[in-house]
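Hi L.,

You mentioned the student needs an example of a multi-chain input paired with its predicted structure. This one should do, with 402 residues in total across all chains.
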Amino acid sequence: MTQSDTLITIPARRGKAARVREGQVVKVINTRGQQVVDTWAFNAHDMTEFMSMEHSRAAMEKIVPQVGDTLVTNRRRPMLQVVEDTTPGVHDTLIAACDVYRYQQLGCEGYHDNCTDNLVAGLSELGESAPEIPSPLNLFMNIPVTEGGRIAFRPPVCSTGQHIAFRAKMDLIIAFSACPQDIIPINGEARTPTEAHFTIG
Amino acid sequence: MTQSDTLITIPARRGKAARVREGQVVKVINTRGQQVVDTWAFNAHDMTEFMSMEHSRAAMEKIVPQVGDTLVTNRRRPMLQVVEDTTPGVHDTLIAACDVYRYQQLGCEGYHDNCTDNLVAGLSELGESAPEIPSPLNLFMNIPVTEGGRIAFRPPVCSTGQHIAFRAKMDLIIAFSACPQDIIPINGEARTPTEAHFTIG
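Structure written out for the whole complex:
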């Protein structure tokens, strides 16, 4: 393992961002198997260009990216290509990041960690800020689409240590949040959010 | 018909925005039956709050809103409730508004009208501007979701004069674009974008 392949931790309930050069591969590991990882990417040289789910669905002509598919930016340029996926391929592009409003509606009193604030915090550690909160690529998140376009929130179907890997198609900043949702079982029936990991190599 | 029910034109290939008070009903008419109308809504008192497809899908637990469903904002507050739909109910929340990048990729030389610029122009006529370009509610747009989450771009299934109506759940600014897409048949096999109309009453 080279230094660039160092395992970086996305702490449980927290965000983490990193700089990635064009051509590098980012591998995201579901360390304990039941953790959703909200994922964003921004052009390293212009934060107003970022990975966009609504543009990516149009480009891919599918809802969930698979190996070979490329997520694109809000300017429809290639950003992240899926190069490997050892999970069953269940990820989500439909659902907003959780936020303070979500937890208020779920009855939480006081502050609850959330993916939206984790994005802001992760970028802040790099001295960066997002011009807006794009809809995230929710890795390992299980949102089945059924008859008539109905959707549901279900626990992940991953196993410990499974991963998905992306090749960066431009210099970018990638940002992750280990989703702190512990009210509904989107991070597993135990409702115990955990850490996850990634490598850049 | 009262003055407030006046038929307002969304000109072919163009945008149009209007102010709507809480409780009013906005009816959007597919005048010629094959026209997609991209739709956005913003809190009239704070443009940073706007209708969000990714938050609405989470709230509705479905991809396409039906009568009784409420589209919510990026702060998860009710914005527009569907109160009537005389169309077959085929609308879209998955696909980004068309933009200059889309038409460049489709091989257009020079400028092509597009829904993103139409949003900006429509708001500008009211002296307003959007802080970002939210993913639109694409009325009458036919994006079937099939096996394995595949999606496709198909002509509308509406008939002349069919409409959908929404009740405003807050004071808001609504913005429409009569989609100028004439390269692919998303606005009908004739690929001839037309005008559409709306009322506020």
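You could point out the following to them. The helical segments of chain B are 53-60, 100-105, 115-125. The CA atoms of residues 81 and 143 of chain B lie 21 Å apart.

Best wishes,
N.
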